[in-house]
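ingest -> validate -> predict -> emit
validate: passed (alphabet ok, no gaps, 474 aa)
predict: started
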Amino acid sequence: MDRETKGEWVVDELAKIALSDEKDAAYIIDSARIPEQVIAIKRAFPRVTLVYLTASDSELRRRYNERAAREGDTVPYDTAKQNTTEKLVGRLAEIADIVIDTEHCTDDDVFVRATSRMSLYGHDSGFVDVLVGGQFGSEGKGQIVNYLAREYDVIVRVGGPNAGHTVTEADDAPYVYHLIPSGARTHHAHYVLSPGMVIDVEKLLKEIAECKLDLKDLSIDPNVMTISEEDPPSEEELFRRIGSTRQGVGAATARRITDRGKDSVVTAGKVKELEHYIRPTYEVMFEALSQNKHILIEGTQGTGLSLYHGEYPYVTSRDTTVAGCLSEVGIAPARVRRVVMVCRTYPIRVESPPAATSGHFSKDIDWGIVSERCGIPRKQLEDQEHTSTTGRKRRVGEFDWRLLRQATFLNGPTDVALTFADYLSAKNANAVRFEQLQSETIEFIEEVERVAGAPVSLISTGRGDRHVIDRRAW
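emit:
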């Protein structure tokens, strides 16, 4: 059956059980025999942990003979080991989420380590987690949110269409979320557009349709500000000075303040096409927390672009720190459980307009230098490094340790998510566990942890969920 189906028969049998059981049931499969079985299961089910148990040959022989004597098995250990599948079972260790030497552990040790790896311990009831960018945006927040999305009941977006979050989905096709929280196309949750947001109504309706969201799946706060036809053109001069995205977010935000009481201010609550989605965010948050649900706030852009804390005037039109995100949503800091700050190995900024700059790096480099260091062809890097909103090329700089420390001070992260580990070495793209990363990469991560004073709990080695190394203890 493995040969005929490439291991997928296991998924078919598991699906029969899962469909007949309660929605939130958990399953232990004992045991997978070939990597193809595991790959098929991971493709079909959202959260799968492969635990690889091992021991020395002498210990395995002892256990085998003890069981054979108990159960009356007459096949000798050495004969059983010559089975084709048994000889290759060690391949599973290469893709395992955790490898446990059972000879050095008690049964209870194995249980605790395995269940901790599956995050079955330490879950509080009714909490808020916040994810923010630690640099200049485009840190890969969308990929991390998409990876975490299945663990949350409610996901909230802040910001506006001047920031796009790209997610590589199951078919390896990228999708850019401009207004809807990342992962809405593939994960079931309740999605919220917070009162501090600025939206383009036409783009939002298109995104709702593409994400196939029902009325019950989405709440839009009535105070969300809408962009008018005049807003994007009014930012042309701003583009020439500092490289604005020209989406009209800044202009609409300014009108929200200066035109209070005028008909020129149109909030989401006044838009007929959105009337069925309108619900105050406060009500959604209050209800979710009172029902012990888990909430994730998806931040926008990066700390280095904060209106107040970035390099003015090369900043965006809002505060992009954790405090800014909480303010936009209307959540008290005391509600926050975890703060995940996303940083990439090489920070980027949008390409500068002629005779201007979109801001400075601590040290400018080019994609040729990155290519020489990591082994990824320069053209491949340049082809994939363009902004998700405007399509403009990205500049690149050395990792900024001072900025990391400043962003840590401003955001107080409990965890750091490090993205683009493959830019440190192309060989990292094959790693599925921390210890499989290149030694230089591990040293880099350890230094990030020292400077940030927080663990690097998530590491992306490429695009998509298959390329996220999860080191969380929560």
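The longest helix spans residues 57-71.
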